[in-house]
Amino acid sequence: MTALHLYGKLRRFATEQSPRAASILRVRVEPGERLGDLVDRLGIPREELGSNLFVDGRYASLETRLAAPLRIGLFPDDMQLLYKWYFRPQEESPDAG
Amino acid sequence: MERILRINMTDRTATFEPVPDRYAHRAGRWLTSSIVHDEVPPTSHPLSPDNVVVFSPGVVTGTAAPTSSRISVGAKSPLTGTIKEANAGTGWGGRLARLGIRAIVVEGMASGDDWWLVKVSQDEGRFEPADEWSGIKLSEAYASIYERYGGVEAIDVCAIGVAGEQRMAAAGVCFSDREGRASRYAGRGGIGAVLGSKRLKAIIVDDSGAEGVSIADQALFDEGRKKVADALMSHDITKPKGALNTYGTAVLVNIINEAGALPTRNFREGRFDGAEKIAGEAIFDGNKERTGSELYNHPCSPGCIIACSNVWHREDGSEHTSCIEYESDWALGANCGIDDLDAIAEMNQLCNEYGLDTIEMGGTIAVAMEGGVAAFGDAQRAIELLHEVGEATPRGRILGNGAVVTGRAYGVERVPHVKGQNMPAYEPRAIKGIGMTYATTPMGADHTAGYTIAPEILGVSEKLDPLDPDKASVAKGFQEATAFIDSTGHCLFIAFAILDIESGFEGMIDECNGVLGTNWDADDVTRIGGEILALERAFNRKAGFTNVHDRLPAFMESEPLPPHDAVWDISDAELDKVSE
């Protein structure tokens, strides 16, 4: 299972929610799935996502192909604090082989 | 007419003099670094009468330009031995600017055991005895000073706490916020100790009768400030109820933690398992739980649109501290292994009360924990240690002199610092760009000197080419742009909006041209930033610093940082390109 950490306004999609602790959704990643597919499957609107998306601590994009990551972190569009013009998201997750 | 107020502590005189022609158009960091460069012998001891403390509001500080109430404070640093500029958001600098005072230069050293306060007003700088405010908490001192001199509408206050009085190298310079709290710090580099060595406890500014900042081209200035305001009001990060207004700068805790770059337990790991408990979201929700309402943050200073300054409340809804910024939250929290916001709030408040830089103190406590003085995560012991600093016990004096001194005292190898200043809240092994800034800025490890969070190399070591020339030029470019922004009086956080929204960047230049009557363009931003850095580096070279000092601690080259298991692998040659 992958721990999907949700932040800011996206915390409403978490099953394990606490106002003062982690907000996590445990998900199973399908073989060959991209981050965008997973987000769609979970009903998280793409327009609420920003550029600060992480797969196993690495900057990612909705196109990033997932291969059994342990941890995904999604920040909403109003929390893109990392300067986006330096971001070159990996198209493949690090353990995609 | 623009003037400089020279406060001579040796003979206790305060004299106005015209701004010399060579300092035309210089303000903020540009002016503080110019005066320190020109007047302080580089090899002098920072706590000797030869050092000066320079205060300068930025080019547009004191005008209607949004988010522009920064005051720069410069000196030779007792923490690093380098030139230093630290700045804070406060109404204090705006009052100074409206009085036509481009800088205050505090020089010399008072003899005897008395403490002094200087009241600056339209016609004079008046010395008054200040013994009654020494040795007490800064909140009590501020309340008493406000009562004596007319309240928050009449004056703003700058003072040092007991740490500065005791000439500790982690002592900051404290300024008042809009509500008169003793909470806004030009924290880094120990300039509070320099003021303490001169026995200057406080400077208060009363701007009654002030004519205001003279503006050469009002129409151009107005056009510029509107462009900056529009950018700030529309950008997701800086707009009202945007990320900074809602979660404060501690919004970064979860982001940097997710990236595996949140220094944890004295830079042992890049991810903290208690991050979510201390992050901006937890502060917002915790306050909501305790006060029953959604509290958006407040401006630290007049005219700020971003309004990122928070207040943390106790369980009974009363105010505990302001402000838990990202750096303070991290330094006193994750870096010490502490995940309890109430404990972090208490430590933050103690730093405010004793006059300490939260970043240096969090880093120092973490080094002390590494040395066995306390266990990581032991919040109660950490609080006791801060009280020891405030009481100036022998151990407190060690801690109050920062992470390097503490590391020596307790035999700790792992002291994450550059040039004697503890690193802030971004792990350089995971974010190499910020490591280049830490290494090469003239200030010692300082994230604000060039916010080079370059995520294309965020732990992605297989993509990292250490000889990629872009990295050096990016680090150099950011340091130049930052030195310029630090001279305008704008808060560095406007960068989020003006680097995304081109008209905002133009607006910043228009504002400066409007005030000064200059014709600067984007190239001048780089040119002026480069000149400031050249001055600062020239001072440091004469003080004995060479490229060998532009390096990170050796343990970072050999010790892999989880979760990415990254090491510091930027070559010396690459680092040296930044300062060429």
Explain this structure.
The complex is a heterodimer of chains A (97) and B (580). With 97 residues, chain A is mainly beta. Chain A is built from one helix and six strands, in the order ββαββββ. Chain A has one helix spanning 35-41; strands spanning 2-6, 24-27, 49-55, 58-65, 71-76, 90-92. Chain A is globular. The two termini of chain A are 19 Å apart. Chain B contains 23 helices and 16 strands. Among the domains of chain B are: 3-206, Aldehyde ferredoxin oxidoreductase, N-terminal domain (Aldehyde Ferredoxin Oxidoreductase,  A, domain 1, 4-Layer Sandwich), CATH 3.60.9.10; 249-296 and 309-415, Orthogonal Bundle (Aldehyde Ferredoxin Oxidoreductase Protein, subunit A, domain 2). Chain B has helices at residues 28-39, 91-98, 138-149, 162-165, 191-197, 218-234, 243-247, 252-258, 275-278, 280-291, 326-332, 341-354, 358-370, 379-391, 394-400, 402-409, 432-440, 469-488, 494-498, 502-516, 522-542, 555-558, 572-578; strands spanning 3-8, 13-18, 53-57, 70-76, 83-89, 101-107, 116-120, 125-129, 155-159, 173-176, 182-186, 200-206, 312-313, 319-321, 417-418, 421-422. In chain B, the strands form four sheets. Chain B has a six-stranded mixed β-sheet with strand order 2-1-6-3-4-5, with helices on both faces. The longest helix of chain B is centred in the C-terminal third of the chain and has 21 residues, at 522-542. Classes of the chains: A mainly beta (97), B alpha+beta (580). At the A-B interface, strand 3 of A face helix 7, helix 8 and helix 10 of B.
